[in-house]
Amino acid sequence: MNLPSFILKNALRNKRRALLSVLSVAMSLFLLVTLQVALRELTNPINDEGSSLRIIVRNKVSLAQPLPARQLQTIDRIPGIVAVTPFSFYGGLYKGDEKFTSFAQFAVDPQRSLPLISDAKGVTKEQLEAWIADRTSCILGKMTADRYGLKVGDRMQFTGQIYPCDLELKIAGIYYGTADDRNLMFHQKYLDELLGNPGTVGTWWLLAASIAEAPLVTDRINKAFANTSAEVRAESERAFVLGFVSMWANIKTLISGISIVVVFALILVTVSTMSMAIRERFRELAILKAIGFKRRELFVLILAESFGLAMFGALLGAGGAWALFNNINIQKMTNGMFLMFEVTPQMLGLAFAVAALLGLLSALLPMINVARTSVVQGLKTLD
Q1: Is 196 found in the same domain as 89?
Q2: What is the pTM of this model?
């Protein structure tokens, strides 16, 4: 019998205990990785070149306060802007949804919004022209269309929650390929007509000429409406989304706290399990001492057993999370709450680092006990 097989036989001596130890490590690290991925997706919105060029302009007082539609004339004269459109969040309930709808509906100017949605694919030129021509039409993200089984030509009915009006829209086109393929866009003019032409919009959606121009454009817009009856706050699309994330209170602290509790509980379980396993073998370890095994060699045996079980659990837990989340449609499973659920190398590294720490800490106490126990005391130990 060689040394590796000896370590393996000791680790699997009590197969039930070994299995439960490995599964506890695996499940805990699976949960840890899942929490870290969820935290990353919630607090780090997609940051591509398009989101850096797109700018949201809202009322400085509150997002709930509308902006005068006449501001468009001033914005059109500001240099560095390629396109601008009204961008009013409707927030209605689609049929069958009682409390909330998992996709957003935005009122825009179709003609002006085309440069802002240039990354959208799947909508033909004829469909775009039909959308522009028909004020009761809309374009819809493919993810939402697939979820509800919708196609071009179908009608969608919405019950107003923010605005005191209901919508009935005809799907003119279905798009895909954007950072978020859930949303619906319809005519701002249609919303204005239903509301009695109030002369307001929710926000403005702009496209800067270049990344270098984007911060200059935000400053120019803010200055253009300073000291007016409707002061504005212009910010990049990414900053705007992060503003919503901040409304969820300190979710990062909450998830980090849960992760720490998971790791701490796992340490207690593994240390207790390993201590029990070594205590049952004190007599055997004493015999090994008596026949010439040195203290450091016994330490290696204990550490290898503990480390091996912990790393095997990490392979099952963290590796399983990576395999699962890379092969499921997280958008469909979460009804669009998460667009991506990527297990990054850093997260895998964290999971295996925690497993390595578990292996070391769970072997530490047994090693100390073995070091303090003499051969005679070990031989007197009952199994």
Answers
A1: yes
A2: 0.66
